[in-house]
User: Fold this.
Amino acid sequence: MSRHRNVKNLDIEDGLDDYDYSAEEEEDDLSPEDRAMMARGVAEVQAALGVEAGKVTVAQIEESLWYYYYDVEKTVNYLIKKYINPPAPKKKPPPPQQPNGEFATSVFAPGMPISPQPRQSLASLFWDMPWGNIPKHRETTFIPPHVPRGGLLGGSGAAPKMSKLQALAAARKKKAEEKKAGEKKAEERAAADVEQAQSKLKELSVNETTTTSSRGTASMAGAFGRRLKTAQSAAQGRVPLAANEPGLTGSSIPSLSTSATPSTLSLSEDNRPIDKAPQSSFAQTLFASPLEKDSSRKRKLPEYFALYPDLPQSVIDAFSKPSPDDIVLQAQAKAGKKNAAPAQPKKKSTATALSTKQASAAQVTDKVSELKISDAVLPKSRNLDVPAEYTKSQQKKSASFVVVGHVDSGKSTMMGRLLLDLKIVNERAVDKLRKEAEIIGKGSFALAWVMDSREDERAHGVTIDIAMNRFETERMSFLILDAPGHRDYIPNMIAGASQADFAILVIDAKEGNFEAGLRGQTYEHIILLRSMGVFRLIVAINKLDMVNWSRERFEEIKDQITGFFKRLGFQLDKIAFVPVSALKGDNIVNRSTDPAASWYAGRTLIQELEASDPKPRELRKPLRMIISEVYSTMQSPVTILGRLEQGCVQVGEKLLLLPANQMAYVKAINTNGGEPVDWAVAGQHAEIALDGIIQEYVSIGDVVCDPNHPVKVMKEFTMKALAWDMFWPMPVDVHRGRLHASGKVTKLVAVLDRATGAVTKKFPQAIRKGQVARIKVEVQDTVPLEAGQRVVLRRGGETVAAGLLE
Ligand SMILES: Nc1nc2c(ncn2[C@@H]2O[C@H](COP(=O)(O)OP(=O)(O)OP(=O)(O)O)[C@@H](O)[C@H]2O)c(=O)[nH]1
Assistant:
């Protein structure tokens, strides 16, 4: 039962010399408090089961109570399902019969007699092969693997969930599309112009130099048609042309307006179309192996690929001679007609004419080689002094907070209520969720579903991943990071806490639930918050409606938790307690109107949030951002989302991504839920569309930094760790925000004095719970880490230690 062990006594300062290992092992037994809870729980469960209680043993009841953290209701439901009214076992289907009437048996069936059947055909020859004849009841059921969602974190098998930022980006896109529809009429007029222009294209003349018998010029001629098509498509709004593409700018683009006449549609040598196109990212992926790519912007590979590299000879030949139009024009010129083609150079002799032609062709070829359609145009960095811009902009104070607490304490419900009462979501939307929740018997989770949007979260009634949402008050703008309470998802809680300025700790005040929470994730979350450097806490003592707004209960919980905060070194003036009912909406945004709650005259939850200062922003330091999501957007197939831990970022800037050690450029930045901006600063969550990098190089947990001040990528580091449990050199999981890496504690350097940091014992054999130690940790793959960062070490789903990198 060690799974419930937590740091209960952090004052243990003794060395390990006199440490009794066997005593530590025996901690697995129940504490007197647990025993009392267990006895009470067993009695309650037996009472609830009534006459059916005889069908389950006390041991079964105890085991279930332990599993459900003394939740009697859940335990009773489980016992009924498991032992009292178990679902009828599925009938085994009879083994399939062979055509001759004998039953088929798998070759793996124990004691299977070898069939004496005569082998008539190939089918019958293989009839008893394990892959051909497995009885239905022995077939494996394929359960599709969990698919990470395209939303903020983690995954569901359902359609990718949109993050708030993505959703707003989608809304913007929709708006743009509507605008586009309004322009449809103008496009139709343009299309009519194009048709008119097309009908006159036959009258176009092609300069004689294009008739040179070379593959290059043939391609050029072919591209000419294509180029007009491109221009036409562009006029129809189908193919966007970059304004500064060489050969496509200004006068070089044949005008297709109503005023255009065929005679204006001639091309000068300088802007003749070419048979080349910029490398698409698809082409880059196909033709450039990741290793071939330089980390700088210089490409080792040719920048362009021929559109039609293998033109058949017939196509080349078709353009190797003067076109019929040219022949007519030349004849007209000879006849001295008015509309003759431009005068040709005088024929001196056949040889001279040929050499002139060749020279001309060579000239054209040279010019063509100079021409290129540039790569996707990157916005240039305006080299802004972003910190100064930020100060000038006088933006609203923004802060992010993580919502933590034991499973089912009401975290998501509270955030749903907050958004509803602030009118960020409307009553109708919540009613709709309520109806949907009622269908699966989870009507009470309607408000929680405002935050928990994943299918699996809704089906199980638990938060699995961090859910983000944004709201603003008159004074501040906030980002909610709703963390899961279940112990299995602690790494997601760590990720949430690493991005937060402060936290709301939700505690279930119901009798028994607070106590269960203490043994569960309430303590663990508090210690994790402390380890992650989150010191400002708002403790929301929830579900007070279930204890009739008992002031005594509120004070009892407050006292117990305060004692714990003191021991952990929290500053008590940074901690606030608010009695609330998330379900009813009491003291969240609106003050409770319940007469039983009149004893509380302090701040509501929203008032406490507004009274919370974000952590100081280090804007002048080099950029550091941890990627919490990677996805594709309209702006870039490699779009990242994360919180800027320090420094700033601006459009056009070059960034370094680690550990891939790849450069990328900032194509666009969105903050505040999808608003396009020129820059973002520390403390903000930004969505950055990248250019010059492929998605394979980018992962959740990677670090984005200033290439001039890169983060070190390391395999071994030293840290000062507070032991949550006894540990020694052993394998651990290293958590740093979103970054998870396998590693091991390689060396215990020293035990340190908790107050002064002085060495009290060198090279101990193990570090006891509550001790602070300097240790060395090695990770399997190199990870970007630097001094001062906070790291959590876990093993087997338990937090072992946490501390600071030295
Ligand atoms: N009576 C009452 N029930 C509440 C209150 N707040 C939440 N609940 C109920 O508690 C249950 C759990 O609520 P959730 O919001 O899902 O809890 P959670 O802490 O987000 O759960 P996880 O994220 O899975 O840890 C739901 O049935 C809620 O309706 C409250 O103030 N009063």
Q: What stands out?
A: The mean pLDDT is 71. The chain has 22 helices and 24 strands.
